[in-house]
Each structure stands twice: as structure tokens, then as C-alpha cells.
Design goal:
- The protein has 127 residues and is an alpha+beta fold.
- It is built from 7 helices and 3 strands, in the order H-H-E-E-H-H-E-H-H-H.
- Strands 1-2-3 form a 3-stranded antiparallel beta sheet.
- Helix 3 runs antiparallel to helix 4 and helix 4 crosses helix 7.
């Protein structure tokens, strides 16, 4: 594990923290027999995805995948036109199986710290 952070530590890393890039991850998709690249969702996309999940998990996952898959570019107008998309996010259901959509969405949210990025070190701090 790491050490306990101090204000001095945070100040010395200020530029690094403020300028950190969104994380990316390469995933293999069975149904497409190929790899895609996803990117950590920006904060507003992650928050909107989690809010949507309260009402409709499948729509939330579709929304997250649409915004987080960066290669191939799911927002490409030619791709969407060729697949006959009515709504831009329709491309997600046309390309991926339901389970793949959920898995891709889950991986994207993990990249932004929604799973496994914070762990308990001690049960209780004693003064």
C-alpha cells in the first residue's frame, strides 16, 4: 500500500493531478471477433450514466458504451447511416450483444474509479 497523503504531497503533484489524461483500455469482443478501445468517461457522462441506471440499466449501459468506445468511432455518421440508426445510441445495440454492452459499460466505469480504486487500509483509526 501507499503512504498517507499530506497537503504537501498533493501540492507537489498539483500539475500532474490537474492534467491527468483519461484512462483507456483495449477489450476483445467475441461477437465481433475484434478489439475495441474504451476511454474512461468524463465525470458528467459517468454521473449521467449512474443516474440513468436508477430507471433503466440497459439504457444506461448503452449510453455509457456509446460515449466510451473511442475505437471504432461509434459516433461516425457514415457508420450510423449504414446501420440505419434512428437515434445515435442505436448503433450500440446493433453492434454488441446485451451482455457485451453491460460488460463494456462496467469496464468503462471501473476506469473512472467506480470499482476497486479505493480500498480499506485499517478498520478504524484510533486517536
Amino acid at each position: 500500500m501507499g503512504k498517507t497523503l499530506t497537503v504537501k504531497d498533493l501540492l507537489s503533484r498539483k500539475d500532474q493531478i490537474k492534467n491527468r489524461q483519461l484512462k483507456t483500455l483495449k477489450l476483445y469482443v467475441d461477437s465481433l471477433d475484434g478489439e475495441i478501445i474504451i476511454q474512461e468517461p468524463p465525470r458528467e457522462i459517468a454521473v449521467e450514466t449512474l443516474a440513468m441506471a436508477q430507471d433503466d440499466t440497459m439504457k444506461a449501459d448503452q449510453f455509457a458504451v456509446y460515449h466510451c468506445v473511442i475505437t471504432p468511432n461509434l459516433k461516425d455518421p457514415v457508420l450510423q447511416k449504414e446501420y440505419g440508426c434512428v437515434e445515435p445510441t442505436d448503433i450500440v445495440e446493433m453492434l454488441f450483444r446485451a451482455g457485451e454492452i453491460a460488460a463494456i459499460s462496467g469496464q468503462a466505469l471501473k476506469l473512472s474509479g467506480f470499482a476497486g480504486s479505493v480500498r480499506m487500509v485499517d478498520d478504524e483509526i484510533k486517536n
